[in-house]
Each structure stands twice: as C-alpha cells, then as structure tokens.
Fold these 4 entries.
Entry 1:
Amino acid sequence: MPATTIAVRVLLVSGDIQTIDTVCHFMGTMAMHVEVCSDFAAATRKLCHTKFEAVVVDFQDRAEALSLLKKSRQMTSHRAAVVVAILNSNDEMPSAFRAGASFVLVKPLSAAVLMRTLKVSYPLMVHERRRYFRCPLEVPVFVSSSSHSDFMATTANISEVGIAVTNSRGLQVGDRVALRLTLPHNPVAARIDAEVCWCDRAGSAGMEFVQIPALVKEQLISWLATRLEECLPEEAALKC
C-alpha cells in the first residue's frame, strides 16, 4: 500500500489574528493540519460533519467558548478528542476544565508553554486519529448470516471498530453477520461478528464490529498503528 500523508486534524476556533498566527505556526512545525473558524455556530456545524482529533477554542467570548466545549463533549465523534482552551486569565481555568478542556493555555501565549503543551498532547491526538483511521485494505472476506446465503466479498478498508466491503449481496442495515478473513501478516483466518450499519445499491456495505477475539483485536490495533505511523508526515512522527 503506498504511503499517503494523513496529518492530525485540528479545528482552531478564534477570531484573533495574533492567536491564529501563533497557534498555526507551532502546529505547522508538527505537521498538523489546522482548520480555522472564527464563528462559533459554524464551528459547531463543522464538528457535526467533520472529525477532528483536536479542538482549540479561544475564550475571547467566554460564554460561547464554554458552550462549544460542552457541545463537543456531547458528540460521540469528539467525546475523546483533545480540547485545548486558550484563556484570558487563570480565573477561567475551573470553568474550562469543567466544560471538558483537556489542556489550557493563558494569554499572552508563551512559545515555550505552547510547544510543551503540543508535545504532550500530540500522542493523544495520534491515538484518537488511529481510532478513526480507516486503512485501505483489499482482501477476500467470507460473509455468512442466518438470513442470507453465504458469499465472498472484498474488503475496502478497515479500522479498529469496523470494516467496509464491496461485492456484498443483499445485505440490509441491521443485519448481523459473521466475517472470516485473513489479516495482513497473520496466517490464521479471523472470525469477527459484525452488524451492517450502512449499505448501497452498488453492493458496498459498512459494518461495525460487535464481537472480535481479544488476540485478533490486539493484532489489528498493532497493524493499524504501524500503517498510520507510515502515513503520518515525517516531521510529526519525529515529535511523537
């Protein structure tokens, strides 16, 4: 599989040019992909439709910032994301942590403190990236269920929590299936129970793992971690 660049994705919510320039500069040195949003309503919509491994929120508008932090923690996709609050004063620390901040920075931003915070938080961002990382994978997979005839499909990608396949036959959302496939670098076929969570007319389907043997899960996580490390920008990997 050819390596492609898969940077950690960060949503920076701020309308302050100096803060934006400073944060983007230091995150750029770690090869993070930063998307800037100055509007809190727009930021909420982005969090609903796009997965970010980290969210950085400027407390220029304290009430809006606290509301966004709380909303992000209520979203399944961002419940475990790294959240950094940029505060106006130390007095805002308790409320920021209660709202869900993982780390806090206080203005004026110190280059040394910002870089130290990024170095500590970066491995957590990579871990979150890995959980949602879908690695392209094309291997045969045997699909069986009580409501359909057994058939052979082809995997399209795989993650820690699920798999997508092509050439599926008549699967419906909610179907429980048993999958048998051989993971890369593992000579023994793995049996995984899964549930169909989406499908289309072209024969593609996405499945969420329901039950996966502990050893198989350990091997899958290890393999995905290696693939992600190969795909991460070299500059970022050196910082981890």
Entry 2:
Amino acid sequence: MTPPKPSWLTSVPKPRDIRRTQVLDKGMGRHQVEDMLEIAGELIDLVKLGWGTALVTNGVADKIDVYRDAGVDVCLGGTLLEVYNRRGEVDLFEEYISGLGLTHVEVSDGTIDLPLAEKLALISRFADDYTVYSEVGQKDPEVVVTPAKWVAAINAELEAGATKVILEGRESGTAGMYRTSGEIRMGLIDEILEAGIRPERLVFETPNKASQTWFIKHIGVDVNLANIAPDDVISLETLRLGLRADTLIDIHGR
C-alpha cells in the first residue's frame, strides 16, 4: 500500500495550460522512453524530438505511439521545419507530420533568415489544423535581439495563432535569452513581462538546474519550462514543490 502524500503537495492535472514541463528527446530508444514515462509520465506535457533527429531515428513512429499512449504530446524540433522551408518543401513537411499523427508544430526562425511576415504566415497556416508553438530568439550566441523586438515578435506570433511562444535558450543555455556565459538576460525577461505578456502564454527553455531554479523563483512554480533533459524531470518537479534545497525556503518559508 502506498502511503498518503501530504496535502501541501500540490499538482495541476492534465491537460495543463500552466506548470508545463516539456522534455527534449535527442534520440532516445523505445525502452528509455518507457522507463521515463513509467516514473514521470504524469509530469510531462510535451516531448520535442530535437531539431531533425526524427528523420534519422529508427522506429520513430512507434516511439511517438508510446508517448501518445501515455498522454504526452509530441512535436518535432523547429529547426526541421526551417530546413524544409529553406528547401521550399513545407508541403512535404506537413505530409510527414500528418503521417506521424502529430498534433503539435513548432515554428521557429532561430537559424535561417525568415522575414517576420513569412513566419507569421506559417504560424497561421499550421494553426488551422495543429497546436502551434512558435519560438522567438536566435541560436547564434553572437546575435543579440533588443527586448523591444522580442516583445513585438511575441505579440505578433500570438496574434497569428500561436498557442504559446517559446523563448530560445538552446539545449546548452548559452543563446537567445542567455548570454554566452550561461547568464540569464534578466532585464530582457523583466521587459517582456512588464510589457503585459502573461507568463502562461510563454515557455522558457531552461536546460539546467540553475536556470530552472531562477525562473521558478522569479515567475513562480506554475512557470512553463522546456528543453528539460529526460533525467531531470523528477528533479525539476522537486524544485517546483520545494523539495530541494534550492527552492525550499522560497516555497515553504522560514
């Protein structure tokens, strides 16, 4: 018999609009996926098959079925759509994701030079049939985008039909909303929030404990976080619940 959990151990049932945990799958095998879902499936809302890994992963359709059966949504990395778009083959991309039975699409421009109007058109196109997560921010760590441009892009992409906007951080946490040192551009985050963009419409890429902790402390336990490593799902939940030293005082007080 499983002992009862304390009443203060709060959770938000699926499907969640807040406190979302989005995992980055860089090429896990079926058994790895099954092990992760066995211990943490209820904590995971969406899995992104990173960049273009889906095209070179054996048994990718079967793996997606495992996620789907566990109530976890799947999307492909936005970089893959950038590749198809660069080659003028967006129709083929849509055929591919339709064949995989996917319901979510990530639209990004972190690598290619994509005019905002064209990006917004892509968002609108896919929003008719899919849940669209757009992504703002550059993958090149040398490219610094002003906060005003971040705010304008986020608002425009939400208006075009994006369900949520992801703030770029890469799996390294050294680009987009991070400096090359890994330091969070705190002023950028504050300006985005002060512009009136609601946190629940945003997803922050936080690939390590330091960034996860900062966003939980700065925005709250219900913040949506992405690029979570499979091995860090349980760890992240303990941060949200104050079951780890990094957030214990913040959540449970002194």
Entry 3:
Amino acid sequence: MNDMYDFFVLLLDTGGRHGEICTLEWSRINLEERTISLWRPKVKNESILFMTDRVYDILCNRFKNKLNQFVFNNRTGEAKGYTPTTLRKAFKRAGLSDCSAHTLRHTHASRLIQNGLSIYEVKEMLGHADIRTTMRYAHIEQRSISIKAREVINRLNKENAKPELRLINN
C-alpha cells in the first residue's frame, strides 16, 4: 500500500480537509453504496460524498488490509497525522514545490466549477457554511468563462431568433 498516494487521491477526489481524511474511520465508509459520511469538525456538519472510481478502488484495497477503525493509521494504530513537513517532502518529490494538502482541496473545487457545477453546489460538496468561503476556492479561468458565455448566448440567439431576423443577418 502506498499511504501517501492513497491519502493524496482521497484529498483530491473528495475535497476533504487534511484533518478530515487523516481521522476518517471505517464506520463512515459504505463500500456497498460507495459513500463516505465525512464529518467536518471545523464547521460541525456532515457531508455524504459519493466515491469516485479511484477512491472506491483505494478504499476496497485498504479495507482488505485494515488494522483498526482508521482508514489511515500510524504504527500504534491511531489516526495517522501527516505532518506539514511530511506532506511538503512528498510534494517536492513529485516536483510540486509550491503545494500543500489544502492545494488539493482548492484543485478539487476548481475542477468542479470549471466542469459545470455551480458555486452553490461546490459549497455543499466542501461543507462550507458561507458561500464567500467557497468563492475563494473558485479559481475560475476568465477565458473559459468567456467561451462558455459566448456558447450560451449563441445558443439562446439561435433558439429565439425570428425568421426575419435570420434573413437580415445572412
């Protein structure tokens, strides 16, 4: 098992916070339904997340070798607390010198928004109490927004065009 790889994939595919994934317990995993009941202590709420295929594969493999209640555990059986130094070293080995565990959360949010989820949907996925927090995660590329806006306006214009207006524009 590659703990660090598995940990990073869970962070990236769930948008979970470092501490939420470090302390994730098997009792919160439902492999049959492919869900994770993620308790978010920072905002005192729970999110039900549906697993991506690779999260499901990772959790199935880890479940076969589980030692105790935690998905990620240390040698003494407690929740594994990946230190910022350990994570920085792992990112550096991967050639990502300016990253942190939180970068993966930002990436998760940005990927969702750039692929069609609304800021409100992403707010729910991340478990934010305030939409303004989610807005800080929304690294929306201006070019991509402009292209989408053009496509929407073009489609609306075609759907709502009157025949005589089409003749004038031809």
Entry 4:
Amino acid sequence: MNTSSRRSGVRPATALLAGLALAAGLTACGSDGGDDTATDPAASSSSASDTPSETPAETPSGTPSDELIETIPESGSGSSGTIPAVGSAGVTEATMVSGTEGGGSASTMALALDTDRAVSEFVAGLEGALRQTVTSTVTQVAEQSPDATPYGAVVSIGCDAPTGVSVDAGEAGFQVVPQLPKSNVQCLAPITYVVVFAAPDA
C-alpha cells in the first residue's frame, strides 16, 4: 500500500513539469513568430521612405538672366539691311545700319555724305564697329547710284527698329522721319539706327 501511494504521488508531479515545459516552448515559438511578422512591415516602411530621397530634384540648366546676357550683342557691333522709303524726295528705299550702344544723336535732318571729310564727321560720334559699317555702307550706296548723292541720318536710338522711313525734301535739306512699330520692344541696351540713302541729283 505504501509503495503504490508513492508512485501515485510521483506521476502527477512529472506530468505537471512536462506540461509547464510544453507551455514554455509554445510561448517561445509564438514570440519568435511575432517578432518575424513585426520586423517585415518595419523594413518595408523604411525602404518606402528611402525611395523618394533617392530621386534628385531636377533643376533648370540655366537661368533667364544667363540667357539674356548671352544674347547681348557686342558694344557698337553693326548690322545692315534695306527698308522701304516714301516721301517727296523720290527715295524708294534706304539702307539701315544698327548697332547696340552705337552712340550718336538722333536727328531728322540728313547730311550729305559726298566727301571723305563729310563721312568722317558724320561717323565721329558713333562707337565701335558701327562706325566702320556706316562708312562702308556709304561707299556702297555711292557706287550703286553714281548719279545720286548719298545722305545719312541717325534716325532713332532705342529698342524699336524702324520699319521704314519718310524722306521729304525741304528748304534746309532732306528730312527723314522713321516709321516705328506700335509695340514696344524690351532690350537691355539702347540701339543706334542709322539710315543711308541716295537722293537723285537735280
């Protein structure tokens, strides 16, 4: 009787210890699984937050001010072209020479450019390459119209290029009035516009 009672007391204790060990093992496994599932969202969220920072913001290659500076012509540089002319002087076309910051003073009175001295005095107030361009233009106009006298006038200084000129004969000489466009053109430096034309000899 004593031996059977001892055995019966030992078996419940052994079963209790085995049950506790099994419960501890299940708890450990459950915590490991929870850690694994909690780690994955954190990793995915961190990688998602890193993605926008990896894409650099695009910036324009140049500023408007840089572009404007690049388009400024050289000071005094001269360019020429033919424009229509009307008026009582019988002139139908004129050559207009322009230059950025070319100097000179605007006037409606044209000067006869029939001698080297007259040409030198006319271009004396002009700057840079514009001076040489006007001198060459006077020579070309004189060669193309041997039966006429070349005249010149600084018709405008500003940003608006004349689209044509009116040349009228008066008591004091030829009066040249530029025909300017209605819309104002913006520019960073004033432009000098010189008109050269050939007036028929009387």
